[in-house]
Protein backbone atom coordinates (compact mmCIF):
# COMPACT_ATOMS: atom_id res chain seq x y z
CA UNK A 1 0.00 0.00 0.00
CA UNK A 2 2.77 2.45 0.92
CA UNK A 3 4.57 1.63 -2.33
CA UNK A 4 1.40 2.36 -4.30
CA UNK A 5 1.13 5.73 -2.56
CA UNK A 6 4.69 6.47 -3.63
CA UNK A 7 4.02 5.58 -7.25
CA UNK A 8 0.74 7.50 -7.23
CA UNK A 9 2.58 10.59 -6.02
CA UNK A 10 5.11 10.00 -8.77
CA UNK A 11 2.33 9.90 -11.36
CA UNK A 12 1.63 13.62 -10.99
CA UNK A 13 4.72 14.71 -12.87
CA UNK A 14 3.01 17.76 -14.29
CA UNK A 15 2.00 20.76 -12.22
CA UNK A 16 -1.65 21.43 -11.69
CA UNK A 17 -3.07 24.35 -13.62
CA UNK A 18 -5.63 26.89 -12.50
CA UNK A 19 -9.28 26.57 -13.45
CA UNK A 20 -11.46 29.18 -15.20
CA UNK A 21 -11.73 32.00 -12.69
CA UNK A 22 -12.60 35.61 -13.37
CA UNK A 23 -13.83 38.64 -11.49
CA UNK A 24 -16.95 40.77 -11.40
CA UNK A 25 -17.07 44.40 -10.37
CA UNK A 26 -20.17 46.53 -9.79
CA UNK A 27 -21.10 50.18 -9.44
CA UNK A 28 -24.21 52.33 -9.56
CA UNK A 29 -25.46 52.77 -13.10
CA UNK A 30 -24.30 55.96 -14.83
CA UNK A 31 -22.24 56.77 -11.76
CA UNK A 32 -18.98 56.83 -13.65
CA UNK A 33 -16.98 55.94 -10.54
CA UNK A 34 -13.89 53.75 -10.98
CA UNK A 35 -14.15 49.99 -10.68
CA UNK A 36 -12.64 49.33 -7.27
CA UNK A 37 -14.25 46.30 -5.63
CA UNK A 38 -13.69 42.97 -7.37
CA UNK A 39 -15.36 39.65 -6.53
CA UNK A 40 -14.32 36.21 -7.66
CA UNK A 41 -16.41 34.13 -10.05
CA UNK A 42 -15.92 30.75 -11.68
CA UNK A 43 -17.13 30.27 -15.23
CA UNK A 44 -17.12 27.74 -18.04
CA UNK A 45 -15.39 29.20 -21.07
CA UNK A 46 -16.93 26.54 -23.30
CA UNK A 47 -20.28 28.30 -22.98
CA UNK A 48 -18.75 31.72 -23.59
CA UNK A 49 -15.30 32.94 -22.70
CA UNK A 50 -14.62 36.15 -20.80
CA UNK A 51 -12.21 38.76 -22.15
CA UNK A 52 -8.74 38.78 -20.62
CA UNK A 53 -8.12 42.47 -20.09
CA UNK A 54 -8.34 45.30 -17.56
CA UNK A 55 -11.49 46.79 -16.05
CA UNK A 56 -11.39 49.95 -18.18
CA UNK A 57 -11.66 47.95 -21.41
CA UNK A 58 -14.81 45.97 -20.55
CA UNK A 59 -18.30 47.08 -21.64
CA UNK A 60 -20.59 47.44 -18.57
CA UNK A 61 -23.88 45.54 -18.53
CA UNK A 62 -26.99 46.20 -16.39
CA UNK A 63 -27.48 43.75 -13.53
CA UNK A 64 -30.91 42.14 -13.24
CA UNK A 65 -31.26 40.85 -9.68
CA UNK A 66 -33.46 37.75 -9.66
CA UNK A 67 -31.62 36.14 -6.76
CA UNK A 68 -34.92 35.45 -5.01
CA UNK A 69 -35.74 32.84 -7.69
CA UNK A 70 -33.78 29.96 -9.19
CA UNK A 71 -34.30 30.83 -12.85
CA UNK A 72 -35.56 27.33 -13.61
CA UNK A 73 -38.99 28.38 -14.88
CA UNK A 74 -40.10 30.66 -17.69
CA UNK A 75 -42.32 32.64 -15.32
CA UNK A 76 -39.17 33.74 -13.47
CA UNK A 77 -38.37 35.91 -16.51
CA UNK A 78 -41.95 36.63 -17.63
CA UNK A 79 -42.41 40.06 -16.03
CA UNK A 80 -38.91 41.53 -16.41
CA UNK A 81 -36.89 42.90 -19.30
CA UNK A 82 -33.68 40.87 -19.35
CA UNK A 83 -32.45 42.00 -22.77
CA UNK A 84 -28.76 42.88 -22.67
CA UNK A 85 -28.46 42.29 -18.93
CA UNK A 86 -26.49 39.99 -16.66
CA UNK A 87 -29.06 38.02 -14.67
CA UNK A 88 -28.38 36.90 -11.10
CA UNK A 89 -30.34 33.86 -9.90
CA UNK A 90 -30.24 31.51 -6.94
CA UNK A 91 -28.69 28.07 -7.19
CA UNK A 92 -30.86 24.95 -7.02
CA UNK A 93 -33.91 23.11 -8.45
CA UNK A 94 -32.37 22.58 -11.91
CA UNK A 95 -29.01 22.24 -13.63
CA UNK A 96 -26.84 25.06 -14.94
CA UNK A 97 -27.75 24.34 -18.55
CA UNK A 98 -31.47 24.88 -17.94
CA UNK A 99 -30.81 28.17 -16.14
CA UNK A 100 -28.52 29.40 -18.91
CA UNK A 101 -30.92 28.36 -21.67
CA UNK A 102 -33.84 30.26 -20.11
CA UNK A 103 -31.68 33.32 -19.45
CA UNK A 104 -30.48 33.33 -23.05
CA UNK A 105 -34.05 32.94 -24.30
CA UNK A 106 -35.04 36.03 -22.33
CA UNK A 107 -32.27 38.06 -24.01
CA UNK A 108 -29.64 38.08 -21.23
CA UNK A 109 -25.95 38.16 -22.15
CA UNK A 110 -24.83 36.42 -18.98
CA UNK A 111 -26.04 34.65 -15.87
CA UNK A 112 -24.60 34.79 -12.36
CA UNK A 113 -25.58 31.82 -10.20
CA UNK A 114 -25.35 32.60 -6.48
CA UNK A 115 -23.93 29.71 -4.46
CA UNK A 116 -23.60 29.30 -0.71
CA UNK A 117 -21.27 26.29 -0.98
CA UNK A 118 -18.16 26.90 -3.07
CA UNK A 119 -16.90 28.08 -6.44
CA UNK A 120 -16.59 25.43 -9.13
CA UNK A 121 -16.87 25.31 -12.89
CA UNK A 122 -20.54 25.15 -14.02
CA UNK A 123 -20.87 22.04 -16.15
CA UNK A 124 -23.10 21.16 -19.09
CA UNK A 125 -25.52 18.25 -19.08
CA UNK A 126 -24.90 17.28 -22.70
CA UNK A 127 -21.43 18.45 -23.64
CA UNK A 128 -22.06 17.77 -27.32
CA UNK A 129 -25.09 20.04 -27.79
CA UNK A 130 -25.26 22.40 -24.81
CA UNK A 131 -22.03 24.24 -25.58
CA UNK A 132 -23.18 24.77 -29.16
CA UNK A 133 -26.66 26.03 -28.23
CA UNK A 134 -25.76 28.33 -25.32
CA UNK A 135 -23.72 31.43 -26.11
CA UNK A 136 -23.88 33.51 -22.93
CA UNK A 137 -21.56 33.79 -19.95
CA UNK A 138 -22.37 31.18 -17.30
CA UNK A 139 -20.67 31.95 -13.98
CA UNK A 140 -20.96 31.16 -10.28
CA UNK A 141 -20.54 33.76 -7.53
CA UNK A 142 -20.54 33.27 -3.77
CA UNK A 143 -23.58 34.57 -1.89
CA UNK A 144 -21.35 36.56 0.43
CA UNK A 145 -19.92 38.42 -2.57
CA UNK A 146 -23.29 39.05 -4.19
CA UNK A 147 -24.74 40.54 -1.01
CA UNK A 148 -21.97 43.15 -1.15
CA UNK A 149 -23.07 44.02 -4.69
CA UNK A 150 -26.71 44.29 -3.59
CA UNK A 151 -25.75 46.98 -1.07
CA UNK A 152 -25.11 49.37 -3.99
CA UNK A 153 -28.85 49.70 -4.63
CA UNK A 154 -31.25 48.80 -7.41
CA UNK A 155 -29.68 50.37 -10.52
CA UNK A 156 -26.39 48.52 -10.86
CA UNK A 157 -24.10 47.80 -13.77
CA UNK A 158 -21.41 45.13 -13.75
CA UNK A 159 -18.38 44.03 -15.70
CA UNK A 160 -17.14 40.45 -15.98
CA UNK A 161 -13.62 39.69 -17.17
CA UNK A 162 -10.44 37.75 -16.54
CA UNK A 163 -7.87 40.19 -15.12
CA UNK A 164 -4.46 40.13 -16.71
CA UNK A 165 -1.53 39.75 -14.38
CA UNK A 166 0.00 43.14 -13.80
CA UNK A 167 3.15 41.44 -12.52
CA UNK A 168 4.39 38.48 -14.54
CA UNK A 169 6.87 37.37 -11.90
CA UNK A 170 5.64 36.59 -8.42
CA UNK A 171 8.05 36.23 -5.48
CA UNK A 172 6.34 32.99 -4.50
CA UNK A 173 8.20 31.34 -7.38
CA UNK A 174 11.39 31.77 -5.34
CA UNK A 175 9.77 29.81 -2.51
CA UNK A 176 8.65 27.09 -4.93
CA UNK A 177 12.19 26.96 -6.35
CA UNK A 178 13.77 26.61 -2.91
CA UNK A 179 11.31 23.88 -1.93
CA UNK A 180 12.04 21.88 -5.07
CA UNK A 181 15.83 22.22 -5.02
CA UNK A 182 16.24 21.60 -1.29
CA UNK A 183 14.00 18.54 -1.46
CA UNK A 184 16.03 17.05 -4.33
CA UNK A 185 19.34 17.79 -2.57
CA UNK A 186 18.37 16.61 0.93
CA UNK A 187 16.36 13.63 -0.29
CA UNK A 188 19.03 12.55 -2.76
CA UNK A 189 21.77 12.92 -0.14
CA UNK A 190 19.85 10.84 2.42
CA UNK A 191 18.96 8.26 -0.21
CA UNK A 192 22.62 7.74 -1.14
CA UNK A 193 23.65 7.24 2.49
CA UNK A 194 20.74 4.84 3.06
CA UNK A 195 21.65 2.74 0.02
CA UNK A 196 25.31 2.55 1.06
CA UNK A 197 24.38 1.49 4.60
CA UNK A 198 22.05 -1.13 3.19
CA UNK A 199 24.84 -2.60 1.05
CA UNK A 200 27.21 -2.68 4.04
CA UNK A 201 24.65 -4.50 6.16
CA UNK A 202 24.16 -7.08 3.43
CA UNK A 203 27.92 -7.66 3.30
CA UNK A 204 28.09 -8.05 7.09
CA UNK A 205 25.14 -10.42 7.02
CA UNK A 206 26.94 -12.52 4.40
CA UNK A 207 30.07 -12.70 6.54
CA UNK A 208 28.01 -13.78 9.55
CA UNK A 209 26.39 -16.53 7.51
CA UNK A 210 29.80 -17.89 6.58
CA UNK A 211 31.00 -17.66 10.19
CA UNK A 212 28.39 -20.08 11.52
CA UNK A 213 26.69 -19.59 14.89
CA UNK A 214 29.43 -17.63 16.65
CA UNK A 215 28.13 -14.81 18.83
CA UNK A 216 24.61 -15.89 18.05
CA UNK A 217 22.68 -13.74 20.52
CA UNK A 218 24.50 -10.49 19.83
CA UNK A 219 24.44 -11.08 16.11
CA UNK A 220 20.78 -12.03 16.18
CA UNK A 221 19.84 -8.85 18.04
CA UNK A 222 21.89 -6.82 15.57
CA UNK A 223 20.28 -8.51 12.60
CA UNK A 224 16.80 -7.85 13.99
CA UNK A 225 17.64 -4.17 14.32
CA UNK A 226 19.01 -4.07 10.78
CA UNK A 227 15.95 -5.86 9.39
CA UNK A 228 13.76 -3.35 11.20
CA UNK A 229 15.68 -0.52 9.53
CA UNK A 230 15.36 -2.16 6.11
CA UNK A 231 11.73 -3.27 6.26
CA UNK A 232 10.41 0.00 4.80
CA UNK A 233 12.99 0.09 1.99
CA UNK A 234 11.78 -0.48 -1.57
CA UNK A 235 14.11 -1.31 -4.45
CA UNK A 236 12.41 -0.78 -7.79
CA UNK A 237 12.54 -3.70 -10.21
CA UNK A 238 11.24 -4.07 -13.76
CA UNK A 239 8.18 -6.14 -12.71
CA UNK A 240 7.39 -3.60 -9.99
CA UNK A 241 7.57 -0.74 -12.51
CA UNK A 242 5.26 -2.58 -14.92
CA UNK A 243 2.70 -3.52 -12.25
CA UNK A 244 2.48 -0.15 -10.60
CA UNK A 245 2.52 1.69 -13.91
CA UNK A 246 -0.62 -0.22 -14.89
CA UNK A 247 -2.19 0.42 -11.47
CA UNK A 248 -1.48 4.15 -11.62
CA UNK A 249 -2.88 4.49 -15.15
CA UNK A 250 -5.99 2.59 -14.08
CA UNK A 251 -6.44 4.77 -11.01
CA UNK A 252 -6.10 7.97 -13.07
CA UNK A 253 -8.87 6.77 -15.39
CA UNK A 254 -11.05 5.85 -12.40
CA UNK A 255 -10.43 9.32 -10.96
CA UNK A 256 -11.60 10.84 -14.23
CA UNK A 257 -14.96 9.05 -14.02
CA UNK A 258 -15.44 8.92 -10.23
CA UNK A 259 -13.55 11.99 -9.05
CA UNK A 260 -16.10 13.11 -6.46
CA UNK A 261 -15.69 9.81 -4.60
CA UNK A 262 -12.05 8.82 -5.13
CA UNK A 263 -10.71 12.27 -4.25
CA UNK A 264 -11.44 11.42 -0.61
CA UNK A 265 -9.47 8.18 -1.01
CA UNK A 266 -6.50 10.23 -2.26
CA UNK A 267 -6.87 12.64 0.66
CA UNK A 268 -6.82 9.69 3.06
CA UNK A 269 -3.74 8.22 1.37
CA UNK A 270 -2.03 11.59 1.58
CA UNK A 271 -2.72 11.79 5.31
CA UNK A 272 -1.12 8.36 5.80
CA UNK A 273 1.85 9.02 3.51
CA UNK A 274 2.42 12.57 4.76
CA UNK A 275 2.24 11.54 8.42
CA UNK A 276 4.63 8.64 7.78
CA UNK A 277 7.04 10.93 5.96
CA UNK A 278 6.94 13.45 8.80
CA UNK A 279 7.59 10.64 11.31
CA UNK A 280 10.60 9.20 9.48
CA UNK A 281 12.10 12.66 8.91
CA UNK A 282 11.76 13.62 12.59
CA UNK A 283 12.68 10.22 14.02
CA UNK A 284 16.52 10.61 13.78
CA UNK A 285 16.34 14.07 15.37
CA UNK A 286 13.93 12.90 18.06
CA UNK A 287 16.08 9.87 18.96
CA UNK A 288 19.19 12.04 19.12
CA UNK A 289 17.47 14.50 21.44
CA UNK A 290 16.09 11.69 23.65
CA UNK A 291 18.64 8.82 23.46
CA UNK A 292 16.86 6.74 26.11
CA UNK A 293 15.20 3.55 24.82
CA UNK A 294 12.00 2.42 26.52
CA UNK A 295 10.37 -0.46 24.67
CA UNK A 296 6.77 -1.57 25.03
CA UNK A 297 6.43 -4.50 27.48
CA UNK A 298 5.95 -8.01 26.02
CA UNK A 299 2.38 -8.36 24.75
CA UNK A 300 0.18 -10.21 22.28
CA UNK A 301 -1.09 -7.15 20.41
CA UNK A 302 -0.32 -7.77 16.69
CA UNK A 303 1.00 -4.25 16.05
CA UNK A 304 3.20 -4.23 19.16
CA UNK A 305 4.67 -7.74 19.17
CA UNK A 306 8.02 -6.35 18.00
CA UNK A 307 8.04 -4.13 21.12
CA UNK A 308 8.59 -0.74 19.47
CA UNK A 309 10.18 2.16 21.32
CA UNK A 310 7.57 4.04 23.35
CA UNK A 311 8.96 7.46 22.43
CA UNK A 312 8.72 6.57 18.74
CA UNK A 313 5.08 5.63 19.23
CA UNK A 314 4.52 9.02 20.81
CA UNK A 315 6.23 10.74 17.88
CA UNK A 316 4.14 8.81 15.35
CA UNK A 317 0.97 9.77 17.22
CA UNK A 318 1.90 13.45 17.02
CA UNK A 319 2.72 13.17 13.29
CA UNK A 320 -0.55 11.37 12.59
CA UNK A 321 -2.40 14.09 14.51
CA UNK A 322 -0.79 16.71 12.25
CA UNK A 323 -2.00 14.82 9.17
CA UNK A 324 -5.52 14.45 10.54
CA UNK A 325 -5.59 18.12 11.53
CA UNK A 326 -4.68 19.08 7.95
CA UNK A 327 -7.45 16.83 6.60
CA UNK A 328 -10.02 18.52 8.84
CA UNK A 329 -8.76 22.05 8.12
CA UNK A 330 -7.68 21.50 4.48
CA UNK A 331 -9.88 24.35 3.21
CA UNK A 332 -8.62 26.89 5.73
CA UNK A 333 -6.46 29.77 4.55
CA UNK A 334 -3.40 28.42 6.39
CA UNK A 335 -3.85 24.80 5.25
CA UNK A 336 -1.30 25.22 2.43
CA UNK A 337 1.47 25.49 5.03
CA UNK A 338 0.61 22.12 6.59
CA UNK A 339 0.11 20.57 3.14
CA UNK A 340 3.57 21.73 2.06
CA UNK A 341 5.17 20.38 5.25
CA UNK A 342 3.50 16.98 4.82
CA UNK A 343 4.31 16.96 1.11
CA UNK A 344 7.94 17.94 1.69
CA UNK A 345 8.54 15.18 4.22
CA UNK A 346 6.60 12.74 2.02
CA UNK A 347 8.91 13.44 -0.93
CA UNK A 348 12.08 13.19 1.18
CA UNK A 349 10.88 9.94 2.77
CA UNK A 350 10.03 8.59 -0.67
CA UNK A 351 13.54 9.38 -1.91
CA UNK A 352 14.97 7.77 1.23
CA UNK A 353 12.85 4.67 0.78
CA UNK A 354 12.55 4.07 -2.97
CA UNK A 355 15.87 3.14 -4.58
CA UNK A 356 16.89 2.69 -8.20
CA UNK A 357 19.20 -0.35 -8.44
CA UNK A 358 20.67 0.56 -11.81
CA UNK A 359 20.80 3.27 -14.44
CA UNK A 360 18.85 0.99 -16.77
CA UNK A 361 15.90 0.92 -14.36
CA UNK A 362 16.11 4.71 -14.03
CA UNK A 363 16.05 5.13 -17.82
CA UNK A 364 13.06 2.81 -18.25
CA UNK A 365 11.16 4.61 -15.48
CA UNK A 366 11.77 8.02 -17.04
CA UNK A 367 10.71 6.78 -20.49
CA UNK A 368 7.47 5.33 -19.10
CA UNK A 369 6.71 8.56 -17.26
CA UNK A 370 7.31 10.48 -20.47
CA UNK A 371 4.89 8.23 -22.36
CA UNK A 372 2.42 8.54 -19.46
CA UNK A 373 2.54 12.34 -19.63
CA UNK A 374 2.20 12.54 -23.40
CA UNK A 375 -0.72 10.11 -23.49
CA UNK A 376 -2.81 11.52 -20.63
CA UNK A 377 -2.17 15.17 -21.51
CA UNK A 378 -2.09 15.26 -25.32
CA UNK A 379 -3.66 12.02 -26.59
CA UNK A 380 -6.67 11.59 -24.30
CA UNK A 381 -8.42 14.77 -25.60
CA UNK A 382 -8.98 12.82 -28.82
CA UNK A 383 -11.11 10.28 -26.94
CA UNK A 384 -12.99 12.33 -24.32
CA UNK A 385 -16.40 13.76 -25.19
CA UNK A 386 -15.45 17.19 -23.84
CA UNK A 387 -12.15 17.38 -25.71
CA UNK A 388 -10.26 17.92 -22.44
CA UNK A 389 -7.31 15.84 -21.32
CA UNK A 390 -7.78 13.31 -18.56
CA UNK A 391 -4.73 14.61 -16.70
CA UNK A 392 -5.89 18.24 -16.68
CA UNK A 393 -9.42 17.32 -15.57
CA UNK A 394 -8.10 15.12 -12.76
CA UNK A 395 -5.38 17.55 -11.68
CA UNK A 396 -7.64 20.62 -11.58
CA UNK A 397 -10.83 18.90 -10.39
CA UNK A 398 -12.87 21.08 -12.76
CA UNK A 399 -15.64 18.49 -13.05
CA UNK A 400 -15.93 18.05 -9.29
CA UNK A 401 -19.15 19.05 -7.58
CA UNK A 402 -17.49 18.97 -4.15
CA UNK A 403 -14.83 21.63 -4.71
CA UNK A 404 -12.13 19.21 -3.51
CA UNK A 405 -8.64 19.25 -5.01
CA UNK A 406 -6.01 16.54 -5.09
CA UNK A 407 -3.36 17.35 -2.45
CA UNK A 408 -0.39 15.86 -4.33
CA UNK A 409 1.15 19.29 -4.98
CA UNK A 410 3.16 22.02 -3.34
CA UNK A 411 1.28 25.29 -3.32
CA UNK A 412 2.30 28.81 -2.36
CA UNK A 413 -0.16 31.74 -2.56
CA UNK A 414 0.58 34.66 -4.84
CA UNK A 415 2.33 37.50 -3.03
CA UNK A 416 1.64 40.31 -5.51
CA UNK A 417 -1.49 42.47 -5.31
CA UNK A 418 -3.31 42.12 -8.63
CA UNK A 419 -7.01 42.15 -9.47
CA UNK A 420 -6.82 38.38 -9.88
CA UNK A 421 -6.30 38.19 -6.11
CA UNK A 422 -10.02 38.84 -5.74
CA UNK A 423 -10.25 35.07 -6.00
CA UNK A 424 -9.05 33.65 -2.68
CA UNK A 425 -6.16 31.20 -2.47
CA UNK A 426 -4.51 31.93 -5.81
CA UNK A 427 -1.58 29.54 -5.76
CA UNK A 428 1.47 28.68 -7.75
CA UNK A 429 1.51 24.89 -7.89
CA UNK A 430 4.17 22.23 -8.38
CA UNK A 431 3.43 18.50 -8.55
CA UNK A 432 5.33 16.07 -6.34
CA UNK A 433 6.52 14.15 -9.38
CA UNK A 434 8.44 17.18 -10.65
CA UNK A 435 10.62 16.82 -7.54
CA UNK A 436 10.68 13.07 -7.00
CA UNK A 437 11.80 12.11 -10.52
CA UNK A 438 15.06 14.13 -10.46
CA UNK A 439 15.41 13.23 -6.78
CA UNK A 440 15.51 9.51 -7.59
CA UNK A 441 18.32 10.13 -10.06
CA UNK A 442 20.14 12.29 -7.50
CA UNK A 443 19.86 9.50 -4.91
CA UNK A 444 21.22 6.92 -7.35
CA UNK A 445 24.11 9.23 -8.29
CA UNK A 446 24.99 9.86 -4.64
CA UNK A 447 24.94 6.13 -3.87
CA UNK A 448 27.26 5.54 -6.84
CA UNK A 449 29.62 8.28 -5.63
CA UNK A 450 29.79 6.72 -2.17
CA UNK A 451 30.33 3.23 -3.58
CA UNK A 452 33.28 4.23 -5.80
CA UNK A 453 34.48 6.71 -3.13
CA UNK A 454 34.48 9.72 -5.46
CA UNK A 455 34.14 13.31 -4.31
CA UNK A 456 30.36 13.25 -4.99
CA UNK A 457 30.92 14.60 -8.48
CA UNK A 458 27.90 12.81 -10.00
CA UNK A 459 25.57 13.83 -7.16
CA UNK A 460 26.63 17.48 -7.40
CA UNK A 461 26.32 17.39 -11.19
CA UNK A 462 22.77 16.00 -11.06
CA UNK A 463 21.76 18.62 -8.48
CA UNK A 464 23.29 21.51 -10.44
CA UNK A 465 21.87 20.50 -13.83
CA UNK A 466 18.14 21.06 -12.94
CA UNK A 467 19.05 24.34 -11.24
CA UNK A 468 20.95 25.69 -14.24
CA UNK A 469 18.22 24.64 -16.65
TrEMBL record:
<feature type="transmembrane region" description="Helical">
    <location>
        <begin position="310"/>
        <end position="328"/>
    </location>
</feature>
<protein>
    <recommendedName>
        <fullName>PA domain-containing protein</fullName>
    </recommendedName>
</protein>
<dbReference type="GO" id="GO:0030660">
    <property type="term" value="C:Golgi-associated vesicle membrane"/>
</dbReference>
<keyword id="KW-0732">Signal</keyword>
<dbReference type="GO" id="GO:0005765">
    <property type="term" value="C:lysosomal membrane"/>
</dbReference>
<keyword id="KW-0967">Endosome</keyword>
<keyword id="KW-0378">Hydrolase</keyword>
<feature type="compositionally biased region" description="Acidic residues">
    <location>
        <begin position="221"/>
        <end position="231"/>
    </location>
</feature>
<keyword id="KW-0472">Membrane</keyword>
<keyword id="KW-0812">Transmembrane</keyword>
<dbReference type="Pfam" id="PF02225">
    <property type="entry name" value="PA"/>
</dbReference>
<feature type="transmembrane region" description="Helical">
    <location>
        <begin position="263"/>
        <end position="282"/>
    </location>
</feature>
<comment type="similarity">
    <text>Belongs to the peptidase A22B family.</text>
</comment>
<feature type="region of interest" description="Disordered">
    <location>
        <begin position="204"/>
        <end position="231"/>
    </location>
</feature>
<feature type="transmembrane region" description="Helical">
    <location>
        <begin position="334"/>
        <end position="351"/>
    </location>
</feature>
<dbReference type="InterPro" id="IPR003137">
    <property type="entry name" value="PA_domain"/>
</dbReference>
<dbReference type="GO" id="GO:0098553">
    <property type="term" value="C:lumenal side of endoplasmic reticulum membrane"/>
</dbReference>
<dbReference type="Pfam" id="PF04258">
    <property type="entry name" value="Peptidase_A22B"/>
</dbReference>
<dbReference type="InterPro" id="IPR046450">
    <property type="entry name" value="PA_dom_sf"/>
</dbReference>
<feature type="transmembrane region" description="Helical">
    <location>
        <begin position="173"/>
        <end position="192"/>
    </location>
</feature>
<feature type="transmembrane region" description="Helical">
    <location>
        <begin position="363"/>
        <end position="383"/>
    </location>
</feature>
<dbReference type="GO" id="GO:0098554">
    <property type="term" value="C:cytoplasmic side of endoplasmic reticulum membrane"/>
</dbReference>
<dbReference type="InterPro" id="IPR006639">
    <property type="entry name" value="Preselin/SPP"/>
</dbReference>
<feature type="compositionally biased region" description="Basic and acidic residues">
    <location>
        <begin position="210"/>
        <end position="220"/>
    </location>
</feature>
<feature type="transmembrane region" description="Helical">
    <location>
        <begin position="236"/>
        <end position="257"/>
    </location>
</feature>
<dbReference type="GO" id="GO:0033619">
    <property type="term" value="P:membrane protein proteolysis"/>
</dbReference>
<keyword id="KW-1133">Transmembrane helix</keyword>
<dbReference type="InterPro" id="IPR007369">
    <property type="entry name" value="Peptidase_A22B_SPP"/>
</dbReference>
<feature type="domain" description="PA">
    <location>
        <begin position="68"/>
        <end position="140"/>
    </location>
</feature>
<feature type="signal peptide">
    <location>
        <begin position="1"/>
        <end position="19"/>
    </location>
</feature>
<dbReference type="GO" id="GO:0042500">
    <property type="term" value="F:aspartic endopeptidase activity, intramembrane cleaving"/>
</dbReference>
<dbReference type="GO" id="GO:0010008">
    <property type="term" value="C:endosome membrane"/>
</dbReference>
Amino acid sequence: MVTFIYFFGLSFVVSQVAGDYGVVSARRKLDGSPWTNFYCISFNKRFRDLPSTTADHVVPRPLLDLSNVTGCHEQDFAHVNATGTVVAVNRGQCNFTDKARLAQKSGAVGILICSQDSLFTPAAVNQTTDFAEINITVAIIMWSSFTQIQKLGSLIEVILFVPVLETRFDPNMIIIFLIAVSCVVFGGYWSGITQLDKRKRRVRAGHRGKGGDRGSKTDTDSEEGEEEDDEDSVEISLPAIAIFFVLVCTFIVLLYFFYDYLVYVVIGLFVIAGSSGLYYCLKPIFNRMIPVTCRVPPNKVPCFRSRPDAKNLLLFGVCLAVGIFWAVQRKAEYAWILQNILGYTFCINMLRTVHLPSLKICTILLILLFVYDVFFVFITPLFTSSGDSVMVDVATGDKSHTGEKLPMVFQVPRLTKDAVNACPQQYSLLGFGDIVVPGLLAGYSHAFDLTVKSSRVYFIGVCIDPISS
